[in-house]
Input
Amino acid sequence: MVRLFLFVFICLTFNSLRAQTLRSPNGLLRLQIETAPALSWQLFLRDKPLTLSAPLNITIEGVGTLGNNPTLIKTDSSSVRRTVTPDVRQKSAVIAESYNELILRCQGDWGVIFRAYNEGVAYRFFTELKTGEVRVTGETCTFRPADCKTVYFPEEESFYSHNERIFLPLAPAEIHENRLASLPLLVEMESGVKVLVTETDLQDYPGLWMHGSKGKNGNLIGTLPYYPQNDGAHEQPRYSTRGQRLLFGQNKRYAQLPLALVLSGGTRYGLARQSNALVAGRTQPTKKYGLDSPG
Output
């Protein structure tokens, strides 16, 4: 009996380490996080899947890929209820902020912060390396809608863009791996739920772009701009990135990547209103440059 109890206890402990759950304050959104065999996430609304399981990882020069077969050593959970005063006012001078947070700390001095808001979910990688600088050479970010109907796709011709694009309403079968879009990007589900994919708080890091998948199934795969093959000032970096170096800034041993956001709502108009406030309230304090304030 003692051996059976120990076996069951060990199995339950192992399962709790590999699977983590985070809910929004109102309980409607549920983020399911797996750490074995690799780091992945899946989002549910009212316990029905909005997305399919998708991988998350980053690759750091001289360190390796963080997220493949990670060893979880500690989890920290907290709930935050506060007000935020953005540098640029939205519809009000202050924004009410409410979310539940889960921090996964992994062997190798790195981790991931997950947050669940009533409006959506967010995540960001961080490092606490003992020596050297952080040079990110790759990132895996995939959005896999469970029942995609339409993608409002701000299609780009290349990474050289002013990001003033028309959001093309495309069926999943129309989006192949060579079609590129900037963010934000809106996905409409068969159920009528709208999901916005975007990011905020970029510091010394390039913006995320997305392209379709070979299966033409609505899956969207993150990609990042590269240096052009030649360092000519007027060369336009095209979408083809073979043989080029990633365009990333360097940071000290402690680094936080941008906050990636997946927002859900009933209509795209209501989603736009709530996403403005959510993005505005999740950035670090604005730096001042020269005579301009904010920078």
Summary: The helical segments are 2-18, 268-280.
